[in-house]
Amino acid sequence: MIHDRAIYAERRRAFMSKMERGVAVFRAAPVAVRSHDVDYPYRQDNDLLYLTGFAEPEATCVLAPGTEFPFTLFVRPRDKEKEIWNGIRAGVDGARQAYRADAAYPIEELAERLPKMVEHAPVLYFAPGRDVAFNQRMMDLFAWARDNRARSGAGPRGVLDPGTLLHEMRLFKSAEEVGALERAIAIAAEAHTAAMRETRPGLFEYEIEALVDYTFRRRGGSGPAYPSIVASGHNATILHYVENDRRMDDGDLLLIDAGAEWGGYCADITRTFPVGRKFSDRQRALYEVVLASQEAAIATVKPDVAFDAPHKAALDVLVDGLIEHGLLTGTRDAAIESASYRTFFMHRTSHWLGMDVHDVGVYHVGDGPRALAPGMVLTIEPGLYVPPDCETVDAGWRGIGIRIEDDVLVTEDGGRVLSAAVPKTVAAIEALRTEA
Q1: Taking the CA of residue 199 as centre, how many other CA atoms within 13 Å lie in the half-sphere pointing to its CB?
Q2: Of these residues, 99, 403, 406, 433, which one is catalytic?
Q3: Is the pLDDT of residue 1 over 80?
Q4: HEC assignment per residue over 232-284
Q5: Exposure of 9 by Cβ count < 10 A (0-12 exposed, 13-18 middle, 19+ buried)?
Q6: 265 is catalytic
Q7: pLDDT in tens, 23-82
Q8: d(CA 405, CA 411)
Q9: β-pairing, 23-27 with 60-63?
Q10: For residues 266 and 257, what is the distance between their CA atoms, to the nearest angstrom?
């Protein structure tokens, strides 16, 4: 996590400068039960985390520009008995001193104080989250304030999504955020390279998953940014395969889609390589198509280029390769117009990357795709997946699944691949597999 409190203060200032002098309410993510009396490891709501750095549950942030207390935190009070079991809390004093809240109160006082903070605000900024009960409380509060407005002439005219303002801020990464992303990606790169070295025929997918996730933690990450995909053989044709329980055989390909989280920021890298020493001829042929498509997509990344330009560039190369190798017939234009290629490539090539793996930020502005700009970070991840039961192609192609994914920062003069440390050419992969 970024620890410089001045950065969070500047984010709040920038966000509040965009508000219509309303009140914005951000609720902490609820604690999630794993089973019975065991909870999942806690993960804070990213909007609240981005604005405050406050990582504890049972908290609410209220931003009210132009008032006596623009930044108020409602938090769990200190409790010696509970802290013995579950760790030290910031408490009310810590919210003021460590997190620079203008005012702080115990979370138990939220129901009493929040109506007074909202009743005269011209706009209420609130986005329903995972805390369903709190969502209803906020809608009831708005209804109450609206009724009061009819009598007093003051109060919220409506409820607006703060994400329309905040998520545009999150889309453009600061130098500190890029540094956190680089750290997460470096850890993930080490894990992927270790997996390439240690994979052997006869091992189970979960053994490589264990190595990958172990490396994330050993190198200081908080763990996987999402459930690691370790998919061998025909499992690689399942886009979000997470069972990771198959025994790997010589002749298989292994697709690993895994990213570490560090400091609240996520890596997202995919590599595909042979379980044995080398690719088979058909595996290599499709791999080279996917790699060429990815390189073509990365080459398009630069300011003022449309967000979908990488996808279009990748798609052209993928379709040409499918036609060349006989998996599709006809022309490129016909295959794209009819979408016949979607049997083998059914997802988009890119998404934003940041605090969320599929990070916030709109992809279209007006009637078209938005333009890339410096500070944006996106993935480039084309793939080809030949279904095991695909009867329209020769049996030798069936069950091959390949994806190559890198994380790319848009710079002033192009795109910088942040995950370039992980081998991805056939020569580099086979050299590493032969030495392993």
Answers
A1: 37
A2: 403
A3: no
A4: EHHHHHCCCCCCCCCECCCCCEEEEEECEEECCEECCEEEEEECCCCCCHHHH
A5: middle
A6: no
A7: 999 999 999 999 999 999 999 999 999 999 999 999 999 999 999 999 999 999 999 999
A8: 19
A9: antiparallel
A10: 13
37 assigned to active site = yes
Concerning whether 268 is annotated as a catalytic residue, the answer is yes
Joined tokens for residue 102: 């203008």
The catalytically annotated residue of 182, 381, 406, 407 is 381
Query: 137, 284, 347, 398: which one is catalytic?
Result: 347
381 catalytic? Reply is yes
pLDDT band at 236 (very low <50, low <70, confident <90, very high): very high
Main-chain phi, psi angles of 199, to 5 degrees: -65, 135
- pLDDT at residue 151, rounded to an integer: 73
pLDDT reported for residue 411: 98
Rounded to the nearest 10°, the torsion over CA 12, 170, 178, 54 is 50
The question of whether 405 is a catalytic residue gets the answer yes
Which candidate in 34, 36, 37, 304 is catalytic? Answer: 37
Calpha distance 68→73 (Å, rounded): 14
Predicted confidence (pLDDT) per residue in 173-226, tens digit: 999 999 999 999 999 999 999 999 999 999 999 999 999 999 999 999 999 999
Q: Does residue 257 have an active-site annotation?
A: yes
In tens, the pLDDT along 127-166 reads 999 999 999 999 999 999 888 876 777 789 899 999 999 9
| Annotated active-site residue in 257, 359, 406, 430 | 257
Annotated catalytic residue, options 205, 385, 407, 430:
385
Label residue 158 exposed, middle or buried (CB < 10 Å: 0-12, 13-18, 19+): exposed
Instruction: Kindly report the pTM of this predicted structure.
Output: 0.97
Rg (alpha carbons) of the chain, rounded to whole number? 25
**What tokens does 62 get?**
């209220």
